[in-house]
Amino acid sequence: MNGGGTSRHIGRIIIRAIVTLLMVAILNFILFRVIPGDPAKLLLGGARTSVTAEQIEAQRQNWGLNRPLFPDQLVDYLSATVRGDLGYSFKFRGRHVADLILERLPATIILVGIAQLTAIVIGVMVGIYAGWRRGGTLDNLATGSSLLLYSTPSFWMAMILVVIFSTSLGWFPGYGAYSPGAITGFLGSFLDYLRHLTLPVTAVALGLIGQYVVVARAAMSDVVTEDYMVTARAKGLTGGQMLMRHAFRNAMLPVVTLITLNLGYVVAGAITVEAVFAWPGIGGLTVEALNARDYPVLQGIFLLLGASIVVANLVADLAYGLLDPRVRQ
Amino acid sequence: MSESTVRYSQRGGARAMKGFLRQFLSYGGAQVGLVCLVFFLVVAPIPNILVGPLQTAINATGDFLAPPSGEHLLGTDEVGRDVLNLVVHGARISLTIALLATVISLIVGTTVGITAGYYGGRVDVWLMRLTDFFFVMPSFVLALVITPVVLEVMGRGGEILGFRPSPFVILVVIGLTSWAFVARIVRSQTLSLKERTFIDRARVAGSSNFSIMVRHILPNLVPQIAANGALVVAGAIYVETSLSFLGLGDPLQPSWGTLLSLAQRAGAASAGAWWYLGAPGVCVLTVSLSFVLIGNALDDTFNPRRRVIP
């Protein structure tokens, strides 16, 4: 193992990530040029607004729309994207797409972050135990129910949760992030927010738990048949010591990779759940953009989802190399 | 000589098939999956015979959001349509979209995988770079931005091959964005297959590259393609349901996802109309679970290493 091999490996991973991001941006560029109608008019707020010919011409000059599509316009588009200039929303007239997205991002990150943590703790624990005691009652129960959870669309799970825990039992609110009016004070509104978070978090987490159980169990099943586990037993270690010192650490590798990868995918996965609860995050924005045919916003969201996926993949690849030196060779 | 070889391989094929079926059907998951799937595949093509033509707001027969009763086994929706009627018609639309999307995905994935693996070199590098992109970007995310743009270009009226534009676009987009996994597996299998002696024999006998790929390599890939095809269907159903739920479906050809979207818009969850959103959801869950179970069982059958671990 030499340092040159490692840095070349890292370099390759980074280049692949950049190429993927570039393809996302180019796809965005092509899609926006394909939409019928004058791009200058689209940039001024959609085909339904009335604008003067001078405004359109100014916009043309401004965006370089009179120049050839390739490479001039593409390069302009890419450099604007890198600067964070994603154009203007159709629906929210005159607002920057980047601002709209940044405004909605915290709500999604809170939802997705808490759901991830919950799913990791529960899913990994159950999966490790199921893999350790393969064929036991808990294993069969966990494997069966995680397959069921895995096949259930999480937004449908969300609707069922609303019917049971909001409409029938009235325990948790099933709409929005705040109760309108009434509640005042920091503690009061904080608790109110938590109550609103409960059902969306549960829905997203249940979808993730199934995956974590399956992967943690499979990783554990692979590990327990390894020679070093036999050695560990021969050394006279107890079951608990074997589990913690040898099995757990080695089984964590694929689990950590999956968790890191999921950090990128989970924002997209939460879109439909957010739609059920009218959660004021990226998912809510996506539905509004789809209904209003607000393409700049939709493309901004696509870029965000693409970037988070690519970054998560990058981190997972790098982490994998760090955790398992064999990969670097 | 060649005749006896052919006969031998046919007998061997039949025996292998029998052995495969015995192994495959020994999995409880495969049995459950097959039973559920056969049920839906019988129901889906004949909705008109089972529950009459698709109900609309005009020929709706019941009260608004009425719970299940003897007359309406699965209750009614917000305009009085029978939910059972909607769900049975939804089966035809959801399954057609998922299966056709899978066919497209398998064709593209297999073509890309075989070509990359067989030719190697620069072709392989570029095709795999393309595959990497589709591997990393989930079909749902790509379809979320591509579908509305394509619909805007095509318009939402009229019909294409018996489909309304939106289900048609959804199925094509899902098919064209969900092939990467298949391509990777097919490529790695092709890489090992093309080194075998029977490929050399075919080449010496004068077979063209195309004929070697189609007649000698492709038949050996069928197990992998079948096992992954089942998982692709499950994925396609998931993506279609999610997209339709977000409002990209067509109410004139409602899939299960479109029904869930209508239920959501009608406030079925907060009205406690569990039958309205329960029925399509249970169908989606059952079908996608069936395909996952069948896919896993196929994988276990073809991949003997996995059989060792219970």
**Amount of helix of chain A:** over 70%
Helix content of chain B: over 70%
Q: Approximately how much beta-strand content do the residues of chain B carry?
A: under 5%
Secondary structure category of chain B: mainly alpha
> At the fourth CATH level, what is the homologous superfamily of chain A?
MetI-like
The rough form of chain A would be described as: flat
Structural class of chain A: mainly alpha
Instruction: Fill in the CATH topology of chain A.
Output: MetI-like fold
Please tally the β strands of chain B and state the result: 0
- The number of helical elements of chain B comes to 13
- Mean of residue pLDDT of chain B? 82
CATH topology of chain B: MetI-like fold
Elements of chain A, N to C (H/E): HHHHHHHHHHHH
What are the defining features of this structure?
heterodimer, A: 329 residues, mainly alpha, MetI-like fold, B: 310 residues, disordered N terminus
Question: How does this structure look, described?
Answer:
The complex is a heterodimer of chains A (329) and B (310). Chain A has a single domain (88-327), classed as MetI-like fold, CATH 1.10.3720.10. Chain A is built from 12 helices and no strands. With 329 residues, chain A is an all-alpha fold. The radius of gyration of chain A is 24 Å and the shape is flat. The longest helix of chain A has 39 residues, at 186-224. Chain B is mostly helical. Chain B has a single domain, classed as MetI-like fold (Orthogonal Bundle). Chain B is built from 13 helices and no strands. Chain B has helices at residues 2-25, 28-43, 47-51, 83-119, 121-136, 139-154, 165-177, 180-193, 197-204, 209-248, 256-265, 274-302, 304-307. In chain B, helix 4 packs parallel to helix 7, helix 8 packs antiparallel against helix 10 (209-248) and helix 10 (209-248) packs parallel to helix 11. The longest helix of chain B is centred in the C-terminal third of the chain and has 40 residues, at 209-248. The model of chain B is unreliable at 1-8 and 306-310 (pLDDT under 50). The chains are: A mainly alpha (329), B mainly alpha (310). At the A-B interface, helix 1, helix 6, helix 7, helix 10 and helix 11 of A face helix 5, helix 6, helix 10, helix 11 and helix 12 of B.
